[in-house]
Amino acid sequence: MDHLGRVRRLQEQLSRHRLDSLLVTHLPNVRYLCGFTGSAGYLIVSERGAVFFTDGRYTSQAREEVSGARVVIGGKAPLLSAAEWLGKQRATTQAKKPQVLGIEGEVLSVAARKRLLEALPTGFRLRAAPQLVEQARMLKDAEEIQRIRAAVTLSASLFPTALQTIRPGVTENEVAATMEYTARKAGASGMSFPTIIASGARSALAHGRASEQPIPGEGFVLCDFGVILAGYCSDMTRTVYVGRATEDARALYEAVREAQQAAVEAVRPGISAGEVDQAARKPLKKRSLAKFFTHSTGHGVGLEIHEAPRVATGQPEVLRPGMVITIEPGLYIAGKWGVRIEDMVLVTEHGCDVLTPTSKQFTAI
Ligand code: ZN
Ligand code: ZN
Hints:
Blueprint (H helix, E strand, L loop, with lengths): L2 H14 L4 E4 L2 H8 L7 E5 L2 E7 L3 H7 L4 E5 L3 H16 L5 E5 L6 H10 L4 E5 L3 H6 L4 H24 L6 H14 L4 E2 L4 E4 L19 E7 L1 E3 L2 E2 L2 E7 L4 H20 L6 H14 L11 E3 L6 E5 L12 E4 L2 E4 L3 E4 L2 E5 L4 E3 L11
Parallel strand pairs: 1-5, 3-4, 5-6
Antiparallel strand pairs: 1-2, 2-3, 7-10, 8-9, 9-12, 10-11, 13-14, 15-18, 16-17, 18-19
Helix pairs in contact: 4-5, 7-8, 9-10
The structure holds zinc ion (ZN) (2 copies).
One zinc ion binds next to loops.
């Protein structure tokens, strides 16, 4: 991964936002900028470069993984080591005017902010920085796209396992467990979120985690799942029908399929995320079903399962080649059933590439 290039581009952003340095504390951002995959490590980026702070537990891991940044193994918590280092730097430069240290306001806790302020010498001002790293992470480079494709392929390969396991009387947990076991055996480091297997009336819960409920003899089973492979997440949903499908069930499914297709077809560079969301809602409005689509159309995926951009009503973010987003409209009729279909798509120069290879035909088991 091009850590040095990422740090350089961030450095350019710092002066534009009048920040002397940025303290990166959100671990996926730390990983993005320097490669560290552990659970305790912070990065300071300034015009002089990037310095990574961790503690003794990560000495060898940091030396192995981190590139594009100097590594400091401190004897205390990484936040305090970082504060100490900043203080020393300031003393050597003998700068008079206050140094503006950007922090990640969405991530750094109030308690950590207080500890940081106490540890810093006078002459520092903290400022919540714009989400510069998150914005950079929206555009995936070739190596990231390759990893995302591999994660998508692996998760798609789990769906036949689900189809073989889904039978009336089998619990949702058993379906999820079989898929998760298969995923780990195939090389995934884990699932990207707790697997959703929601059957019968539970399919109307947009986020119905797999439960001890046995799959009923009749109704939809919503399967939403993804893996983490080489650090990158995947996310897909397919909904199948158990039993003999009624016209009602088919009509609901086809309405979601049409909405999903309309949104996928809308994805291209230059369109806003909000317009893609509208493209999913339009066919549902025509059928007076829009009120049953109760969440946003999609989200970015990468090092995190949910990242920028949000594909939701009114979102002004303009799509650009290299963005990877989900398109996942759903309809949920409380107490009865629900359907969702979700693909991951890559924004390309002229439109988009649907990464998820799995069929979206109505499937009855
Ligand atoms: Zn999903
Ligand atoms: Zn999703």
